[in-house]
Fold each of these.
Amino acid sequence: MNQPARILVVEDESIVAFNLQQRLSMLGYDVPAIAVSGQESIDLVSQMRPDLVLMDIHIQGDMDGIEVAAKLRETHAVPVIYLTAYSEDSTLERARRTRPYGYLLKPFSERELHATIQMAFERQRLENELNDSRRLLQQALDAASLGVMELDKTTTTITPSPRTADLIGWPHDQPLTLPDLLARVDATERDAIAAKLHHCLKDLRHFSEEFRVLAEGSTPRWIKIDAGHVSDQRVTGVVQDVSERKQSELRLKTLNESLEHLVTARTDQLHQSLKELEAFSYSVAHDLRAPVRAIIGLSEMLLQTQPTRFDQDGIDLVQRIAATGQRMRALIDALLHMARLNQVPMQLRLVDISGIAGEIASQLMESEPQRVAEIRISPKLEAMADPTLVRALLDNLMRNAWKFSAHSKITRIDVGAKTLGGETVFFVRDNGCGFDMASADRLFGPFQRLHREDEYTGTGIGLTIVQRIVMRHGGRVWAFSEPGLGAAFHFTLSA
Ligand SMILES: Nc1ncnc2c1ncn2[C@@H]1O[C@H](COP(=O)(O)OP(=O)(O)O)[C@@H](O)[C@H]1O
Ligand SMILES: [Mg+2]
């Protein structure tokens, strides 16, 4: 202590007071004043703000020392030590209620006086610290709008903070018990919460639950209680209002549900229109067949039955009409083929992909026996899939590989599979003319062709069919290529 501690002495016997002042000075304390009556001491405390009061009980005036100390306790946080000759129980009991920092019986030694004063200062320091941390805690609780509560397990009495009482809609002045609290819990949750609470109390476990409380006259609220044991008998907890979060969770949930409904309804509508559209294009394609057949037939008839009516230019024109008609028929047939494949109901079974690929390979080789070709098919390629659709898929990919490698010296086609990230990826690879990757995203669109019709014939429907089939199986299809170095088509059959 840099400054000597300042002590107010309250003592009506001037000799005793003087003597005490001397002894205190020798001990290193400062005694700036001496009071003889209650009122005088209260005034002096207000003016001087001493660090400590040494209080005689029998003093002048209409208050005794104990009454003065009680008054000082209400207005000033100054520690008081009684110095008195009274030692009977009734006085001690009255003095005790004023929470003195010490009680010294006259006569006392210097050492006793010094020790008592030192202990009083130490206790005051601790109390100040305690008050500071209490204030800090309260600030934190207020800022977070948290309530606190304490439960006595034997009596089931709950002591709620005002905020806790407000949260559960309980009057501040009425005693609260555990059954009272449970009675406020929403009836649908009450039993479950009571059971959990019971377990926590029995096994001295932590309790952390959210539930709805219903109090008369106030809107229902969601609260959360986090509680733990501080001893076998006492449980303390923190209470918070989680209504806002709960409500947004609920709103989000209903929103999600209605969105899901909407999506399902829209998807159904979309499926329906898709079906109608498919049926429509099917019937259009189907009805176009007859006139196209007539155009082809008539132009051929014209050439056969009236060959003398045309010169060479006329014959060329009629032949081009017939050829265009045939091309149109091929397109229509491809469309019809695709529409039919779309309508096939899926029947999943274990499909022997190697076997099907082998059959297609034989057909290709037989179609052009003079062509030098090597088609390698990995053994035991299998998948859970629809056999008819998988055959159409392989047919399109392998026919493309065959077609676009027609100009290679030796045609090489590989059909195989690899595992990528736990997924089986099938591939059909060739050493043909390939294509420019810049156009890769067009490949699978209907009627899209990256090569000229006079170089490689086709309708541009094949890869569209491939993509539909793969998608119906929940898989993906993609391609790699470099012009002149061949192409590789990859696909999976289930996601
Ligand atoms: N193996 C391949 N090599 C090079 N280009 C290919 C290959 N497969 C497909 N393509 C390109 O993709 C286009 C679309 O293929 P596809 O839909 O099967 O139509 P089509 O075979 O009737 O031309 C082809 O016209 C071609 O340009
Ligand atoms: Mg094709």
Amino acid sequence: MNRKLLQDKVAIVTGAGRGLGEAVARAYAAEGARVVVSDIDAQAARQVADSLAGAVAVPCDVRVPAQVEALVAEAVRLHGRLDIMVPNAGIARVAPLVATSYADWREVTSVNLDGVFLCIRYAAPAIIAAGGGSIINMASVTAKAACALIGSYAAAKAGVVSLTQTAAVELRAHNVRVNAILPGFIDTELVTSHIAEFEAQLKLPDFGAVVRQRQGRYGRVEEVAALAVFLASDRSSFSNGSGFVLDGGVSSSLL
Ligand SMILES: NC(=O)c1ccc[n+]([C@@H]2O[C@H](COP(=O)([O-])OP(=O)(O)OC[C@H]3O[C@@H](n4cnc5c(N)ncnc54)[C@H](O)[C@@H]3O)[C@@H](O)[C@H]2O)c1
């Protein structure tokens, strides 16, 4: 019988109550992992976990150090080990920099950047104790190329790419690989719920069509999840400290 790619691995996915995180949790479970489905929205996490074999839900707000520490501790208490961490939780606020309140800046950077730091900070020792494993940070192509109105988000994601590199170098000797995924526009609530704001503020009546034209189409969550499986598995054994762009080619084209 073919062994599944993540057979018996223990994985935490944050922000897994919907969207990309949910798709990653589903793909990991399909590859045999025991997934800890985590989200600030406890009910959403429970619904996803209930639909997956071997999964449990553990709520966590990634902005809160004690909650992230407790999330890792709970995964280890339940399964005796931790092999894979996916800091995926993220939010966006849509406004030009000069109209961004300090509170919004802090909110976006605390979820998208502090949250990733905390996940690495508390998960890495547990993964080292398990003999090694993989951390896959969900960054964004906006870390590399600007998109007006989401400057706080893009700055946080650029920070995630930098954290990925430092963590990769520091953890390499412990057999822990750290990589980042940089998706373009993927069809999730994070994108669809903000389209109207982009249209109004950029005075572009069909921003969605512009995105689809530049990227070819919206990306699908399963396409991101497939890369997350690869990066969690031994098939990516020489990938470390890298940012994997997944954007239909938009960031490498002028028009
Ligand atoms: N959708 C895209 O086009 C896209 C592109 C690039 C990067 N990303 C990144 O992928 C990740 C997932 O995005 P998505 O599109 O699935 O978004 P989404 O809004 O559909 O889902 C995000 C999930 O994170 C959870 N969450 C929010 N704040 C949290 C917190 N403080 N603690 C724990 N969980 C929290 C939400 O409850 C939600 O379930 C994010 O980091 C996002 O920045 C998304």
